[in-house]
């Protein structure tokens, strides 16, 4: 849900353009129409995924600029695609920008975890999460990971020279979101760029030889780290972040009233 701010409050904001406000629904109908049209036909293999995933963001930022204003009902939404401004919003020290509150059914399903928390509660949950995913905690999981990988490789010996569907191996990882999406795109990029696939394989053999991989060695896989980061840059599992200004704030040369919803694109 987008916080409601009467559109007349933005008459004094200069330098920001966007699609005109429509009574009651804002620009919601336009967004639905553009999204339906963008996803109605197959897409060729391309790194330019924004026109398909967020066609309204792609269209309006091209038309009105990298900072664009549109409307979800009576609520104002600010699209921010300028790399200089995004850190200012995410790292605002006095708490002016906060995460969108989780309400309704999502709150009942997921509760009030680290994603929807703020302030002291967020700091406490983050500390717990850091301990859970600390290197010492993850180290105990390495043998199970190696055992699983070895079992998979053993099954593959009967399929030498054949085409197999590898997506089935990780499609349900992390509930088919984020991590699974990252792995899917990384595998695709490696299949397309087999020269980088060979570089990654060579690095693994140079570091481990015939030994089983260890946590310390995995941390030194520079080529694989580059490949994963490039995959994240081209195909981010999370396409956007959002923050709500809880009071009047200044971003660059512009001043915005309270309750404006900031849509921060990952592209």
UniProtKB/TrEMBL annotation:
Q: Name one GO cellular component term.
A: membrane
Q: Which Gene3D superfamilies match?
A: Cytochrome P450
Q: What are the recorded GO MF terms, alphabetically?
A: heme binding; iron ion binding; monooxygenase activity; oxidoreductase activity, acting on paired donors, with incorporation or reduction of molecular oxygen
Q: What is this protein called?
A: Cytochrome P450
State the UniProt keywords alphabetically: Heme, Iron, Membrane, Metal-binding, Monooxygenase, Oxidoreductase, Transmembrane, Transmembrane helix
What broad class describes the main subcellular location of this protein?
Answer: membrane
Query: Which protein family is named in the record?
Result: Belongs to the cytochrome P450 family.
Q: Subcellular localization, per the record?
A: Membrane
């Amino acid at each position: 849900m987008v916080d409601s701010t009467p559109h007349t409050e933005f008459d004094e904001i200069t330098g920001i353009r966007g699609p005109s406000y429509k009574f009651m629904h804002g620009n919601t109908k336009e967004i639905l129409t553009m999204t339906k049209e963008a996803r109605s036909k197959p897409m060729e293999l391309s790194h330019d995924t924004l026109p398909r995933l967020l066609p309204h963001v792609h269209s309006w930022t091209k038309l009105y600029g990298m900072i664009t204003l549109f409307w979800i009902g009576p609520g104002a939404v600010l699209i921010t695609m300028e790399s200089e401004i995004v850190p200012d919003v995410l790292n605002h020290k006095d708490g002016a920008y906060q995460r969108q509150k989780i309400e309704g059914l999502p709150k009942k399903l997921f509760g009030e975890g680290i994603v929807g928390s703020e302030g002291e509660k967020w700091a406490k949950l983050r500390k717990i999460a850091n301990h859970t995913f600390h290197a010492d905690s993850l180290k105990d999981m390495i043998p199970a990971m190696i055992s699983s990988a070895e079992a998979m490789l053993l099954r593959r010996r009967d399929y030498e020279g054949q085409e197999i569907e590898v997506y089935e191996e990780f499609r349900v990882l992390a509930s088919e979101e984020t991590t699974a999406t990252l792995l899917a795109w990384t595998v695709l990029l490696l299949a397309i760029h087999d020269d980088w696939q060979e570089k990654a394989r060579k690095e693994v053999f140079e570091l481990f030889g015939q030994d089983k991989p260890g946590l310390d060695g995995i941390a030194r896989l520079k080529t694989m780290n580059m490949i994963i980061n490039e995959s994240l840059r081209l195909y981010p599992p999370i396409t956007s972040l959002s923050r709500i200004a809880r009071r009047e704030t200044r971003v660059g040369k512009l001043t915005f009233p309270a309750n404006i919803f900031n849509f921060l694109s990952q592209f």
